[in-house]
Amino acid sequence: MAVTRSVLCFGLILFFFVLQRGVFGHVICPGCQAPFVRLDHGCYMYLFSNFTKSWSDAQAYCRSKYANLATITSQRENNMIVSYVRSKFPVSFSWWLGGNDMAQEGRWVWVGTKSVMTYTNWYPDQPDDSGGREDCLHLWQNYAHRWNDEWCGFAKNFICEQ
Ligand SMILES: [Ca+2]
Ligand SMILES: [Ca+2]
């Protein structure tokens, strides 16, 4: 009986481990409902829009999903997101993120956490506030999806994070 119980116990542990790790990808993803996806079995859920909006409208859309435009705080998270958009969407897509310097020029903060950026992945010579009107962060499709500041009124695809 002890053996049976051990096997049962091991099976249960394995089952919950598999569930927790999301080994079945997006099919079994506890607490994660479409259109959100969980990347790399991480704790955060992302929504990748297949339509475009201005930065503010994109943020409003994210809020309507109880999320914010995405905050990227590490190279690992950045790589994960860039790999995902490259593999799943046309490379011509450009993506709004939650970074902006609307309140104070040159002071970049995340809309979701209100915190000042620490990790950054700017393309060389960015942010340049070109024309004195670039206050929103996007993944730059033409430059290896590195970061650029852009006019917030442009319509772009966007990434929400919950
Ligand atoms: Ca700016
Ligand atoms: Ca720029």
UniProtKB/TrEMBL annotation:
Gene3D superfamilies (alphabetical): Mannose-Binding Protein A, subunit A
UniProt keyword annotations, A-Z: Disulfide bond, Signal
Listed Pfam families: Lectin_C
TM region(s), chain numbering: none
Residues of the C-type lectin domain: 39-161
The keyword Signal is annotated on this UniProt entry: yes
SUPFAM superfamilies linked to this entry: C-type lectin-like
Annotated signal peptide: 1-25
The protein's name: Perlucin
The species this protein was found in: Lingula anatina (Brachiopod)
Native organism taxonomy: Eukaryota, Metazoa, Spiralia, Lophotrochozoa, Brachiopoda
